[in-house]
Write a structure and sequence with these properties.
Layout lengths: L1 H23 L5 H6 L1 H23 L2 H6 L3 H13 L6 H20 L9 H19 L6 H24 L5 H25 L5 H21 L8 H27 L2 H11 L1
Protein backbone atom coordinates (compact mmCIF):
# COMPACT_ATOMS: atom_id res chain seq x y z
CA UNK A 1 0.00 0.00 0.00
CA UNK A 2 2.87 2.40 0.77
CA UNK A 3 4.20 1.97 -2.77
CA UNK A 4 0.77 2.69 -4.25
CA UNK A 5 0.35 5.84 -2.14
CA UNK A 6 3.81 7.13 -3.10
CA UNK A 7 3.11 6.52 -6.79
CA UNK A 8 -0.27 8.27 -6.49
CA UNK A 9 1.35 11.31 -4.89
CA UNK A 10 3.93 11.52 -7.68
CA UNK A 11 1.19 11.05 -10.26
CA UNK A 12 -0.86 13.87 -8.72
CA UNK A 13 2.11 16.24 -8.80
CA UNK A 14 2.75 15.35 -12.45
CA UNK A 15 -0.89 15.86 -13.42
CA UNK A 16 -1.07 19.17 -11.53
CA UNK A 17 2.14 20.41 -13.17
CA UNK A 18 0.85 19.44 -16.61
CA UNK A 19 -2.50 21.14 -16.07
CA UNK A 20 -0.80 24.29 -14.84
CA UNK A 21 1.50 24.48 -17.87
CA UNK A 22 -1.37 23.85 -20.28
CA UNK A 23 -3.57 26.41 -18.55
CA UNK A 24 -0.94 29.11 -19.11
CA UNK A 25 -1.20 28.69 -22.89
CA UNK A 26 -4.91 27.87 -23.04
CA UNK A 27 -5.74 30.98 -25.09
CA UNK A 28 -3.31 30.12 -27.89
CA UNK A 29 -4.37 28.66 -31.22
CA UNK A 30 -3.64 25.02 -31.99
CA UNK A 31 -0.82 26.00 -34.35
CA UNK A 32 0.72 28.17 -31.64
CA UNK A 33 0.32 25.40 -29.08
CA UNK A 34 2.25 22.94 -31.23
CA UNK A 35 5.13 25.42 -31.35
CA UNK A 36 5.08 26.25 -27.64
CA UNK A 37 7.47 24.13 -25.52
CA UNK A 38 5.34 24.78 -22.44
CA UNK A 39 2.44 22.93 -24.02
CA UNK A 40 4.65 19.97 -24.85
CA UNK A 41 6.05 19.98 -21.32
CA UNK A 42 2.50 19.91 -20.02
CA UNK A 43 1.65 16.97 -22.27
CA UNK A 44 4.78 15.18 -21.10
CA UNK A 45 3.88 15.78 -17.46
CA UNK A 46 0.37 14.42 -18.04
CA UNK A 47 1.86 11.38 -19.75
CA UNK A 48 4.17 10.79 -16.80
CA UNK A 49 1.21 11.12 -14.43
CA UNK A 50 -0.75 8.55 -16.46
CA UNK A 51 2.14 6.06 -16.38
CA UNK A 52 2.55 6.47 -12.62
CA UNK A 53 -1.20 6.01 -12.18
CA UNK A 54 -1.15 2.76 -14.15
CA UNK A 55 1.78 1.44 -12.10
CA UNK A 56 -0.01 2.41 -8.87
CA UNK A 57 -2.99 0.29 -9.94
CA UNK A 58 -0.66 -2.69 -9.96
CA UNK A 59 0.31 -2.18 -6.29
CA UNK A 60 -2.84 -0.78 -4.70
CA UNK A 61 -6.56 -1.42 -4.65
CA UNK A 62 -8.74 0.24 -7.26
CA UNK A 63 -10.76 2.17 -4.68
CA UNK A 64 -7.67 3.55 -2.97
CA UNK A 65 -5.83 4.61 -6.12
CA UNK A 66 -8.85 6.35 -7.64
CA UNK A 67 -9.63 8.20 -4.40
CA UNK A 68 -6.05 9.46 -4.22
CA UNK A 69 -6.59 11.03 -7.63
CA UNK A 70 -8.12 13.97 -5.73
CA UNK A 71 -4.57 14.84 -4.65
CA UNK A 72 -4.15 16.47 -8.07
CA UNK A 73 -6.23 19.41 -6.88
CA UNK A 74 -4.25 19.55 -3.63
CA UNK A 75 -0.93 19.55 -5.48
CA UNK A 76 -2.17 22.28 -7.81
CA UNK A 77 -2.65 24.71 -4.90
CA UNK A 78 1.00 25.45 -3.99
CA UNK A 79 2.10 25.15 -7.63
CA UNK A 80 -0.47 27.72 -8.80
CA UNK A 81 0.39 30.04 -5.93
CA UNK A 82 4.12 29.81 -6.71
CA UNK A 83 3.61 30.52 -10.41
CA UNK A 84 1.23 33.37 -9.65
CA UNK A 85 3.63 34.79 -7.03
CA UNK A 86 0.98 34.92 -4.37
CA UNK A 87 0.14 33.35 -1.05
CA UNK A 88 -2.19 30.42 -0.67
CA UNK A 89 -5.68 31.70 0.13
CA UNK A 90 -7.70 30.74 3.19
CA UNK A 91 -10.23 28.86 1.03
CA UNK A 92 -7.41 26.87 -0.54
CA UNK A 93 -6.07 25.97 2.90
CA UNK A 94 -9.54 24.84 4.04
CA UNK A 95 -10.09 22.81 0.87
CA UNK A 96 -6.66 21.21 1.17
CA UNK A 97 -7.23 20.32 4.82
CA UNK A 98 -10.64 18.77 4.12
CA UNK A 99 -9.41 16.79 1.12
CA UNK A 100 -6.24 15.57 2.80
CA UNK A 101 -8.02 14.64 6.02
CA UNK A 102 -10.67 12.66 4.14
CA UNK A 103 -8.03 10.81 2.13
CA UNK A 104 -6.11 9.90 5.30
CA UNK A 105 -9.30 8.52 6.84
CA UNK A 106 -9.94 6.47 3.70
CA UNK A 107 -6.39 5.12 3.86
CA UNK A 108 -7.03 3.89 7.40
CA UNK A 109 -10.24 1.98 6.60
CA UNK A 110 -9.62 0.87 3.00
CA UNK A 111 -8.56 -2.74 2.80
CA UNK A 112 -5.89 -3.89 0.37
CA UNK A 113 -6.79 -6.12 -2.56
CA UNK A 114 -4.69 -7.62 -5.33
CA UNK A 115 -7.71 -8.90 -7.25
CA UNK A 116 -8.63 -7.63 -10.70
CA UNK A 117 -11.65 -8.02 -12.95
CA UNK A 118 -11.85 -11.24 -14.92
CA UNK A 119 -12.22 -11.12 -18.69
CA UNK A 120 -15.96 -11.72 -18.41
CA UNK A 121 -16.38 -9.10 -15.68
CA UNK A 122 -14.31 -6.61 -17.69
CA UNK A 123 -16.52 -7.15 -20.72
CA UNK A 124 -19.66 -6.69 -18.64
CA UNK A 125 -18.42 -3.50 -16.97
CA UNK A 126 -17.28 -2.07 -20.30
CA UNK A 127 -20.63 -2.78 -21.98
CA UNK A 128 -22.53 -1.25 -19.04
CA UNK A 129 -20.40 1.89 -19.10
CA UNK A 130 -20.62 2.10 -22.90
CA UNK A 131 -24.41 1.84 -22.71
CA UNK A 132 -24.63 4.68 -20.19
CA UNK A 133 -22.22 6.87 -22.14
CA UNK A 134 -23.96 6.08 -25.44
CA UNK A 135 -27.32 7.04 -23.98
CA UNK A 136 -25.88 10.25 -22.53
CA UNK A 137 -24.27 11.18 -25.86
CA UNK A 138 -27.70 11.07 -27.53
CA UNK A 139 -29.23 13.50 -25.03
CA UNK A 140 -29.14 17.00 -26.59
CA UNK A 141 -30.11 18.63 -23.30
CA UNK A 142 -27.82 16.66 -21.00
CA UNK A 143 -26.97 18.97 -18.06
CA UNK A 144 -23.36 20.03 -17.70
CA UNK A 145 -23.05 18.33 -14.32
CA UNK A 146 -24.57 15.19 -15.82
CA UNK A 147 -21.88 15.21 -18.50
CA UNK A 148 -19.24 15.65 -15.78
CA UNK A 149 -20.61 12.66 -13.88
CA UNK A 150 -20.61 10.51 -17.03
CA UNK A 151 -17.03 11.58 -17.73
CA UNK A 152 -15.98 10.63 -14.21
CA UNK A 153 -17.74 7.28 -14.63
CA UNK A 154 -15.78 6.66 -17.83
CA UNK A 155 -12.45 7.43 -16.19
CA UNK A 156 -13.24 5.22 -13.19
CA UNK A 157 -14.23 2.23 -15.33
CA UNK A 158 -11.21 2.78 -17.60
CA UNK A 159 -8.93 2.56 -14.57
CA UNK A 160 -10.61 -0.67 -13.46
CA UNK A 161 -9.97 -2.17 -16.91
CA UNK A 162 -6.40 -0.83 -16.87
CA UNK A 163 -5.79 -2.63 -13.58
CA UNK A 164 -7.22 -5.83 -15.04
CA UNK A 165 -4.86 -5.60 -18.02
CA UNK A 166 -1.74 -4.86 -15.95
CA UNK A 167 -2.42 -7.67 -13.47
CA UNK A 168 -3.25 -10.22 -16.16
CA UNK A 169 -0.51 -9.61 -18.72
CA UNK A 170 -0.10 -13.36 -19.18
CA UNK A 171 -3.77 -13.94 -19.97
CA UNK A 172 -3.24 -13.96 -23.74
CA UNK A 173 -2.61 -11.42 -26.49
CA UNK A 174 -6.21 -11.23 -27.67
CA UNK A 175 -7.61 -10.30 -24.25
CA UNK A 176 -4.85 -7.75 -23.69
CA UNK A 177 -5.49 -6.06 -27.05
CA UNK A 178 -9.22 -6.00 -26.36
CA UNK A 179 -8.62 -4.56 -22.91
CA UNK A 180 -6.33 -1.81 -24.18
CA UNK A 181 -8.84 -0.94 -26.91
CA UNK A 182 -11.64 -0.69 -24.35
CA UNK A 183 -9.52 1.55 -22.11
CA UNK A 184 -8.76 3.88 -25.03
CA UNK A 185 -12.43 4.09 -26.05
CA UNK A 186 -13.57 4.89 -22.51
CA UNK A 187 -10.85 7.49 -21.95
CA UNK A 188 -11.59 9.28 -25.23
CA UNK A 189 -15.32 9.32 -24.48
CA UNK A 190 -14.67 10.51 -20.91
CA UNK A 191 -12.52 13.38 -22.18
CA UNK A 192 -15.31 14.38 -24.58
CA UNK A 193 -17.94 14.40 -21.83
CA UNK A 194 -15.63 16.31 -19.50
CA UNK A 195 -14.96 18.96 -22.13
CA UNK A 196 -18.68 19.20 -22.79
CA UNK A 197 -19.37 19.72 -19.09
CA UNK A 198 -17.13 22.81 -19.00
CA UNK A 199 -19.73 24.71 -21.05
CA UNK A 200 -21.47 25.52 -17.76
CA UNK A 201 -18.28 26.59 -16.01
CA UNK A 202 -15.27 24.97 -14.43
CA UNK A 203 -15.66 24.61 -10.67
CA UNK A 204 -18.81 22.50 -10.38
CA UNK A 205 -18.06 20.12 -13.28
CA UNK A 206 -14.50 19.63 -12.07
CA UNK A 207 -15.73 18.76 -8.60
CA UNK A 208 -18.43 16.37 -9.87
CA UNK A 209 -16.02 14.59 -12.21
CA UNK A 210 -13.32 14.30 -9.54
CA UNK A 211 -15.78 12.68 -7.12
CA UNK A 212 -17.64 10.49 -9.66
CA UNK A 213 -14.38 8.83 -10.71
CA UNK A 214 -13.51 7.18 -7.35
CA UNK A 215 -17.20 6.49 -6.61
CA UNK A 216 -17.47 4.41 -9.80
CA UNK A 217 -14.23 2.62 -8.90
CA UNK A 218 -15.47 1.97 -5.35
CA UNK A 219 -18.69 0.38 -6.62
CA UNK A 220 -16.67 -1.94 -8.88
CA UNK A 221 -14.25 -2.73 -6.05
CA UNK A 222 -16.96 -3.62 -3.53
CA UNK A 223 -19.41 -5.40 -5.86
CA UNK A 224 -17.03 -7.32 -8.14
CA UNK A 225 -13.64 -7.46 -6.44
CA UNK A 226 -14.86 -8.33 -2.96
CA UNK A 227 -13.13 -5.35 -1.41
CA UNK A 228 -14.25 -4.52 2.12
CA UNK A 229 -13.54 -1.77 4.60
CA UNK A 230 -11.58 -2.48 7.76
CA UNK A 231 -13.43 -2.10 11.04
CA UNK A 232 -16.73 -3.58 9.94
CA UNK A 233 -19.74 -1.27 10.18
CA UNK A 234 -17.61 1.47 11.73
CA UNK A 235 -15.25 1.33 8.78
CA UNK A 236 -18.15 1.71 6.36
CA UNK A 237 -19.44 4.74 8.29
CA UNK A 238 -15.96 6.30 8.29
CA UNK A 239 -15.64 5.65 4.55
CA UNK A 240 -19.01 7.26 3.79
CA UNK A 241 -18.20 10.26 5.99
CA UNK A 242 -14.83 10.57 4.27
CA UNK A 243 -16.55 10.71 0.88
CA UNK A 244 -18.75 13.57 2.10
CA UNK A 245 -15.77 15.49 3.48
CA UNK A 246 -13.73 14.74 0.37
CA UNK A 247 -16.53 16.12 -1.80
CA UNK A 248 -16.65 19.31 0.27
CA UNK A 249 -12.88 19.72 -0.02
CA UNK A 250 -12.85 19.12 -3.77
CA UNK A 251 -15.71 21.59 -4.33
CA UNK A 252 -13.91 24.22 -2.25
CA UNK A 253 -10.65 23.78 -4.17
CA UNK A 254 -12.37 23.69 -7.55
CA UNK A 255 -14.27 26.90 -6.86
CA UNK A 256 -11.16 28.68 -5.64
CA UNK A 257 -9.07 27.51 -8.60
CA UNK A 258 -11.79 28.75 -10.96
CA UNK A 259 -11.76 32.26 -9.53
CA UNK A 260 -9.97 34.91 -11.59
CA UNK A 261 -6.39 35.56 -10.52
CA UNK A 262 -7.08 39.30 -10.28
CA UNK A 263 -9.82 38.73 -7.71
CA UNK A 264 -7.48 36.73 -5.49
CA UNK A 265 -4.73 39.34 -5.80
CA UNK A 266 -7.18 42.10 -4.91
CA UNK A 267 -8.15 40.23 -1.74
CA UNK A 268 -4.49 39.83 -0.78
CA UNK A 269 -3.90 43.54 -1.35
CA UNK A 270 -6.82 44.48 0.90
CA UNK A 271 -5.71 42.02 3.57
CA UNK A 272 -2.20 43.44 3.65
Amino acid sequence: MITAVALCVLSAVAYASGALMQQRVAQSSMRALLRDPRWWLGMGANGAGAVLHVVALRYGSLTLVQALGALTLVAAVPLAAAVGRRRVTRAELVGTALTTGALVALLVVTGSSSQALTVRESAGVFLAAAAVMGWAALQPRLPGLGAAAVGGLGFGVASALTQAVTLRLGAGLASIVAGVAAVLVLNVAAVWFTQRSYRVGLAAPLAVGTVANPVAAAVIGVVLLGQSFQGGATGVVVALASVVVLTAGVVTLAREQARPVRARRAEHALAS
